Amino acid sequence: MGRVAELAGVSVRTLHHYDEIGLVRPSARTAAGYRAYSGSDVERLREVLAYRRLGFGLREVADLVGDPSTDAVAHLRRLRGLLLERRDHADAMVAAIDRELEARAKGVKVTPEEQLEMLGARLYDAIGGAYTATRRTDPRIAAQIWDALGDAQTVLNVGAGTGSYEPCDRDVTAVEPSAVMRSQRPAGSAPCVAAAAESLPFEDHSFDVAMAVSTVHHWGDPIAGLREMRRVARRVVVLTFDTDEPGWQDRFWLTRDYLPEFAAVLAEFPSLAGMADAIGARAEPVPIPWDCADGLFEAYWRRPGAYLEDHVRRAMSVWTRVGPEAEQRAVRSLSDDLDSGRWAGRNSDLADLDAADLGLRLLIA
């Protein structure tokens, strides 16, 4: 027990307490007859300590590790998702600190309310809350997604967020790991399960179709998540992004001229071909209307002034990922080019387009 405590970075007293309450009981015996930890005991202890360090109470941990339907791999995937969510929260906090530092350097007074919103318990709510302001179902994109669902009656929406694009005429079950997003789902929405795409808590072929809309890039392991969707549903429909085409960064003027860092954001994102192969899918282009109602990253391709609005950018995860310096530089450059007419001169070919292909793809399997 002493050696295990040393390796795990906890006290022997902690291990004795876990033993007393039945959380982790050493089941092996040494040659001298003392109790020792087997490989499975160590595996369970690892899970217990990981959940504890993420802030879960002992009763919650007992429920998690005692779930008979969850194996070691499922726990690892769940822990990975929780850690990624915490990392995103930390990244957002760093960005908030940077904004306050910049404001203070300019002599701008930061109110107590703003300080608490930036660094207190409301930070994540404020970030996630931006989605409901600009992220809505666009009927033209929805029509293409719903057409791909075909005659499916039972639908699993993975990475469901606040519920955009969920069809109202089907039996929908939603999956969303973020409590902030789940709390913003409107009254009457489909029931929502707290789980990660990589470890869906459903039996094989439980649904007619599994769908995922603009969420795969947030997953810790996109290919694993897609395969899980394929496991639990007979068909799969996924709205994602194509980075296979050479020079894909230049399709959109914002990434081409103002935000080259966008390429690094998707540097480890799987290829469209790899994602399609994982689920046996074909790909359809999804044009973005010039007046797209859903404020996704490319939505304002013919309305460039929208990218100068902070509340618009806050609903796009890209800006948090590239960091405040890149964001501020891009916004300043775009503002200057809009004022001078350079943007209009460079992008005059967009003025008469009703929709643009900027890399959105619908995978249908």
Write the layout of secondary structure elements.
Layout: H1 2-8, H2 12-20, E1 28-29, E2 35-36, H3 39-53, H4 58-65, H5 72-105, H6 112-119, H7 123-134, H8 139-149, E3 154-158, E4 171-175, H9 179-183, E5 192-193, E6 207-213, H10 222-232, E7 233-241, H11 253-258, H12 262-265, H13 272-279, E8 282-285, E9 288-289, H14 310-313, H15 317-322, H16 324-340, H17 342-346, E10 355-356, E11 360-364
Parallel strand pairs: 3-4, 3-6, 4-5, 6-7
Antiparallel strand pairs: 1-2, 7-11, 8-11, 9-10
Order of helices and strands: HHEEHHHHHHEEHEEHEHHHEEHHHHEE
Low-confidence stretches: 120-126
Strand fraction: 5-15%
Q: How many separate helices?
A: 17
* Portion of residues within helices: 40-55%
N- to C-terminal distance: 51 Å
General form = globular
What does the oligomeric state look like here?
single chain
Gyration radius (Cα, Å) is: 24 Å
Q: Sketch the major β-sheet.
A: 7 strands, mixed
Number of strands: 11
Overall mean confidence score, pLDDT: 86
Helix/strand-derived category reads: alpha/beta
